[in-house]
Amino acid sequence: MKILMDAGPWLAVPPGGYGGVENVVATLTTELRRRGHSVVLATVGESDLPVEERVAAFPTGQFGRLAAPYPGVVGIAHAHEQVVLDTIGRHAAAGQPFDIVHTHVEVVGPAVLGALGRSGPPVLATLHWDLHRNADFWAGFDGRGRVFYAGVSAAQVARGPELLRRQTLGAVPLAVPLSRHPRPAAPSERRPDVVALGRITPLKGTAVAVRAARQAGLPVVLAGPVAGRPDEASLRRNLADPAAHLHGNVDVRYFLDEVAPLLDGVTARWIGNVSGEAKDDLLRYAQAALFPIDWEEPGGTAVCEALAAGTPVVAMARGCLPSLVEPGVTGFLAEDEAGFARAVGRLDELDPAACMAAARRRFAPASMATAYERLYSEAMALAGGTGTVAGRAQDISGSAKSA
């Protein structure tokens, strides 16, 4: 199968730190190529994932620009999609058209690709976001039998409007590269701290993580960017300019007003972005990973990464998290901050080996690739007029069933 994988213009593939979507694309693309599929990757110039061809509109990732006012960033995704369209046309003219385009670009991907009409290849758009964002688009866009959706959890798709659900072929839980370590870290190998991995933002509940760890008597490490800035030095450097747009950014204000006052560099510290082996080790040797989210999380890549490293998870019972965490086995789920703090104090009840075993069974790259192969074939058949969309949002990953 010949696939155009549209990762978007925001971060490199694989990313050098934060990058949930890009990590998923890297994991899926690697497994698809291992199975013999040909993949052309639409990304940014600094990406180095091995593929048959890479195309890009920008030499570097544009994620840092997302914190700017809307008029300054609205054209970025469109410029990227123009390269995607040119690539589709170039390959078709050479008599080597794509069997399918798999886009991970929110709104702009399906909209622009849908405008090709019947002259374009079938499109599968993975929904990585809360569908209440850009709800008007999801409620009104008609792929006209050529653009279809895949969710990342059944809970996510269930929140979408009727028209979107009718065009959704299934929900494929995310997968992550399995830890390079064959076993979890032993208790004697672990650091005393817990980790909060992800963007520092109100939606991720970062301040809750710090307060809960403090109540449990555990140090906490925050690993992730603030408004696209990868570390404290970068953030402070940008804020040194009184005219910088970051001064009004919601995530920056949250960090400065609610998170930074809780940090002392010892019992609570922010280390910025981590990636690769450093991230794997950060998770593997922690007591637990904390996810006190304050939104309906659609996918939960970092949760899968923590469990794959053999590290238990404490999370709020929102969005897809109840489908990823098995209470009392791989972690705990809480309904509020008080319950979350109590759960952090119960980590000795959890077995890291059970966490790693569950991740290897449920979040392996092979499970995700198999599910997407099925959706690619279905989208191609439907676009060719051989069937109709039933509009289901069940987990179709086979071994990756919801807990």
Q: How would you state the average pLDDT, rounded?
A: 93
Please summarize the sheet with the most strands: 7 strands, parallel
Portion in beta strands:
5-15%
- Listing every helix as H and every strand as E from the N terminus to the C terminus, the arrangement reads EHEEHEHEHEHHEEHEHHEHEHEHEHHH
The shape, in one word, is globular
The strands making up the biggest β-sheet line up spatially as 3-2-1-4-5-6-7
Topology-level CATH name of the largest domain: Rossmann fold
The number of helical runs is 15
Output the CATH class name of the largest domain.
Answer: Alpha Beta
| Beta strands, count | 13
Q: What does the radius of gyration come to?
A: 21 Å
Q: Give start-end ranges of low-pLDDT stretches.
A: 386-393, 398-403
N- to C-terminal separation?
Answer: 32 Å
Q: Percent of residues in helical segments?
A: 25-40%
> Based on the structure given, which CATH architecture of the largest domain is correct?
3-Layer(aba) Sandwich
